[in-house]
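Technical annex, item 7. During the second reporting period the consortium partners agreed on a shared format for inverse folding records so that results from different sites could be compared directly. Each record opens with the tokenized structure and is followed by the designed sequence. A conforming record, contributed by the partner at site C, is shown below for reference.
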């Protein structure tokens, strides 16, 4: 019998003073049996970075042709494609041809090697690559609960994610 996904819920309140975005989002995420808590929480931060009422989590690890998140316009056309982890550069290149905006959120110790090998990405004008520091990914795991209340505060480029029992400073590094 195959293992089933574990459902996590997060009430995410965003107060971004830099972009004047103030909103609440109710997120429901499935943690795939092969997925780590670290990756789950990186998906939450990816959502927070590109938050929009039409942004949604996909089947991702269950469906290899899908990103971690995507946004579609009112006609169902893909507008935004967001990958989490170290995706295959051909998958990102295809997404770049299909979508107006593509983002890759990378983390972990293999980022430098992955980015060095991904020369094609540097030629794509509509692709952003953001790296989360290891310190950040360690800290956000402490915020994870099956049901989470998260407050994201952004001011002067500094991100702070606050949970019920812990807080994490979020460090973003734009690679592209």
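Designed sequence (site C submission):
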């Amino acid at each position: 019998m195959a293992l089933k996904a574990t459902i996590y819920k997060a009430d995410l309140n965003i107060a971004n003073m830099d972009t004047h975005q103030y909103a609440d989002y109710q997120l429901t995420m499935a943690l795939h049996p092969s997925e780590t808590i670290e990756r789950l929480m990186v998906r939450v931060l990816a959502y927070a970075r590109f938050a929009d009422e039409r942004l949604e989590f996909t089947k991702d690890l269950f469906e290899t042709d899908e990103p971690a998140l995507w946004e579609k316009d009112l006609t169902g056309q893909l507008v935004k494609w967001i990958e989490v982890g170290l995706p295959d550069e051909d998958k990102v290149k295809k997404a770049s041809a299909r979508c107006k905006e593509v983002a890759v959120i990378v983390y972990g110790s293999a980022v430098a090697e992955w980015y060095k090998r991904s020369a094609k990405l540097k030629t794509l004008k509509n692709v952003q690559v953001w790296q989360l520091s290891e310190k950040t990914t360690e800290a956000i795991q402490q915020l994870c609960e099956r049901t989470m209340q998260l407050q994201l505060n952004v001011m002067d480029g500094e991100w702070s994610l606050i949970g019920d029992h812990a807080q994490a400073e979020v460090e973003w590094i734009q690679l592209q």
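The radius of gyration is 16 Å. The helical segments are 37-49, 89-98, 111-117, 134-141. All partners now use this format for quarterly exchanges.
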